[in-house]
Amino acid sequence: MKNIILLCTMAVLALSACQQSPVRYTQDSPEIDTVKKLISNYNSKSFDTSMYADTSKIYYNTNKNALSASETMEYHKQTDANYASRGFQNENQEFEMVVTDDGETWVNCWLDWKGTLAANNKAVDIPVHLTYQFVDGKIVREHGYWDPSEIVMELQKIEAEAKMAEEEMKPME
């Protein structure tokens, strides 16, 4: 009888030890699929806000002055005027979903972005890190980090050259 009780106890312990705990890290989830769809929409210039919660906050290279989802789409439309082409590259994309110790669900991605400036056809490659917080399947917070220096300097150079050309065209006084 003691052996049966001992055997049953060991079986219960073994089964309870094998039970799956909640997934805290994965590279395959509905949230990752949502982010991949968002990236695809960006590349195709389909400015859809349905993946975002109504109260979402988006921060690009800052922790202040959050944008709403619709303001973010407008931002993308405005900056598109600078590019003959632009988008995230299909190679070297990395996605992960983590659930923090506080129970927050975040998707992180590391991507390569390439754009060609419309004014001079200069190609620019920039590594980008994006992270998205999800609640109930919707993005409630987004942070994007990249170094825009090369683009800023090139746009300033284009503007300076345009001003110089304009000055040269003015009649002599």
Structural overview:
The protein is α+β, with helices and mostly antiparallel strands and 173 residues long. The protein has one domain (22-169): Roll (Nuclear Transport Factor 2, Chain: A), CATH 3.10.450.50. It has 4 helices and 7 strands, in the order αβαβαβββββα. The radius of gyration is 25 Å and the shape is elongated. The mean pLDDT is 90.
Core attributes:
single chain; 173 residues; alpha+beta; Nuclear Transport Factor 2, Chain: A; seven-stranded mixed beta sheet; Nuclear transport factor 2 family protein; NTF2-like_dom_sf; signal
Which class of secondary structure composition applies to the elements?
alpha+beta
**Structural shape:** elongated
Span between termini: 114 Å
Tell me the helix content.
25-40%
Largest β sheet strand count, sense and barrel closure:
7 strands, mixed
Low-confidence stretches: none
Strand content: 25-35%
Protein name: Nuclear transport factor 2 family protein
Keywords: Signal
Signal peptide: 1-19
TL;DR?
By secondary structure, the chain is of the alpha+beta class. Helices cover 37% and strands 33% of the residues. Strands 1, 2, 3, 4, 5, 6 and 7 form a seven-stranded mixed beta sheet that branches.
Task: Summarize the helices and strands and which ones pair or pack.
Elements lengths: L1 H17 L6 E2 L3 H14 L8 E9 L8 H12 L2 E6 L5 E6 L5 E13 L5 E13 L2 E8 L3 H21 L4
Parallel strand pairs: 2-7
Antiparallel strand pairs: 1-4, 3-5, 4-5, 5-6, 6-7
